Amino acid sequence: MQYNAVAIVPSAGLGRRFGEGRNKPFETLGNKPVLIWALEVLEQMPEISEIIPVLKESDIQAGTELFKQYKITKVMQIAPGGRERQDSVFNGLRFIKDRESVVLIHDGARPFLEPKTARRALSALPGYDGVVIGVPPKDTIKEIEGQLIRQTLNRDTLIAIQTPQIFFYQPLLAAYEKAMKESFYATDDAALVERNRGSIRVVQGEYTNIKITTPEDLVIAEAFLKMRGDEE
User: Fold this and answer.
1) What pLDDT, on the 0 to 100 scale, is given for residue 229?
2) 139-153 pLDDT tens trace
3) pLDDT, tens only, 86-102
4) Alpha-carbon gap, residue 8 to 88, rounded angstroms
5) pLDDT in tens, 151-171
6) CA-closest candidate to residue 63, choices 53, 73, 74, 51
């Protein structure tokens, strides 16, 4: 089934864990900024009709020049970032004009999105309000309270969620409006739709679809590039 898919790419975080004074989306990975790796994948997907990056207001001019330099033609508007990621995505949602569209939300700090993964999620959307991708955790996960372990969780029932997360526009907007009205914040978009009784399907992601969160992640990402032969 064909959709008019609009991609929102939140890239306005403060990057507290990445290091003071460093701007994570614009950090160089291989031969280009982290954000550009993600945008180029979306640019090449015919399923995506528009890309709406969400940047800190102080980065919008630099972002505009960067997108022109790398010929990211599907960026027609840039949304200003908010205090939290959720505020930023909500700002991006309000830039979408087609209320019948599908919204693909992908973190700008995940440079290794595979088009086949995004397509797998898109094709799984009919019959649901949203689809998320994820991978089974490799480590044992324990629930703690303070410094004490409360219980060991069953890995067979757990999934580590990534982006992109894909939704029909109207249930996503309704979930966001309710959450913002009630000052409820979550760490991903699906949690808001779940809270609004939406149905969310999970499909298999890729372990290489890492998020650049700390400087160590950038080292791992460089290693991935060398494996792929993209380090030049």
Assistant:
1) 76
2) 999 999 999 999 999
3) 999 999 999 999 999 99
4) 10
5) 999 999 999 999 999 999 999
6) 53
Q: Could you tell me the CATH number of the domain that includes residue 222? A: 3.90.550.10
Residue 10's SS3 state is: strand
18, 11, 128: which is closest to 59 by C-alpha? 11
Instruction: Look at phi and psi of residue 229 and say left if phi exceeds 0, alpha if psi is from -120 to 50, else beta.
Output: left
Sequence-separated (6 or more) residues with CB below 8 Å from residue 134 = 159, 160, 161, 162, 202, 203, 204, 205
Cα–Cα distance for residue pair 59/47, rounded to 1 Å: 27
What is the length of the chain? 232
The one-letter amino acid code at 21 reads G
Tell me the pTM. Answer: 0.93
What percent of the chain is helix, strand and coil (3-state, nearest 5)?
Answer: 35, 25, 40
Q: 75 is in which domain, residue-wise? A: 5-228
Determine contact, residues 50/74, Cβ cutoff 8 Å: yes
| Tokens, residue 26 | 């614009």
> Nearest-CA neighbor of 210 among 160, 158, 139?
160
Provide the number of structural domains found in the chain: 1
Handedness of CA 95, 101, 105, 106 (dihedral sign): negative
Instruction: Select from 42, 25, 41 the least CA-distant residue to 33.
Output: 25
- Residues 109-116, mean pLDDT to the nearest whole number: 96
CA 221/CA 39 separation, integer angstroms: 16
pLDDT by residue (tens digit) across 170-181? 999 999 999 999
